[in-house]
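EI: anyone free to look at a 414-residue chain?
SC: sure, send it
EI:
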Amino acid sequence: MSTRLSDRRWPRIRLKYAFREIDQRVGSDAAHLPLLSVSIHRGVIPRAEMTDRESRADDFAGYKRVARGDIVINRMRAFEGGAGISPRAGMVSSDYAVLRASERLSPEFFHYLIRSRWFVGEMTARLRGIGSADLGNVRTPRINVDDLGDIEVALPSVADQCSIADYLEHRLAEVAQVVDRTRRLDALIDERVRAAITASIVEGPLSAGAPSRRIRRVAQVNPESKVFARLEADDLVTFLPLEAVWPGDRLDISRVRRWQEVASGFTRFVEGDVLVPKITPTFEAGRAVVARGLVGGMGVGSTELNVLRPGREIDADFLASVANSTPFLEGGRASMYGVAGQQRVADGFVRDFKFALPGLDVQKRLVTELRRRLLEASEMQDLHRRRTALLLERRDGLVACAVTGQIEIPPVAA
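SC: here you go
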């Protein structure tokens, strides 16, 4: 028999009466406790699972102690879901909030409550910082524990809270499985895309005996490293900021800004240039694009782009396809330098990459055939992404309805 929680009138209380803040410093125990962090998607995990980079803290003695079952909140990311229950003892940065639930609050229920759309809205309204969270321009946004405790919530009994948490755990696991399968299908499509590009653009011309060329012989590499154009402050310009290069899915070159809003030192590109990201993790198949539809025929972008300007011997779309081929990607990764997570492709690799170059008419025919195949793959991926987005939207709606008592909670199978 299902429990109709929504038929009950849940008592309303301020959260400060359901938890207490824990502010214990680890002191000399720091050497024996793992450093924890909060992932928006995975909850509380060891920091080593999020990054290969060593922490720069010289002394962890001032870090906060976390016990198993404590609720850890990244106060700067809480409004994005940066909260979770710690599955182990450890320590976190002093800028995190560590909360311990009272006997009136199930930590598992609170985990879902704090990540629900309704609660995120309540936290967003209480952010401390400069700017607007809605516009994404808040600098150092934080939710204070006192403000968090001031939020009024309706709490069912602890038994009902546990039922809700168990129900959501099972349902969200089902959603996660479907999302994971869809993403694996997308990865398989990506593999097929790389195989199709390589077969059409690299292996085909090579087997046909087309002469070999290095990129620097048929295109200029990074011909203009700085912006030298003289524009009026109110003139519009196509702008490609760093966030469009890393970690976006594709290069979005449709953004337009006023010249006065663009800082100096950006890479300049023109209509018909081929843009190739040179920083991980976006050095992937399908990321190189031809710049088209630029305002005034010119654009400016992040210095994390390689700009290839095709000469007369090579078609821009063919060159972009070469930059999306498996040999180019594998060679580029092998040439990377820099610290983990911020590695860059060596410019020398791009200039000296060798490939088979057929005549222009053959290049255009190969590109036309390849474009048809890639369009089919893109349509399938778009369908998968729409389904995934719908699933995630329904998941968020389910959490919000469950923690606010708007739906029946059926019994959870053992």
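EI: Residues 13-53+60-155 form a domain with the Adenine-n6-DNA-methyltransferase TaqI; Chain A, domain 2 fold (CATH 3.90.220.20).
SC: 👍
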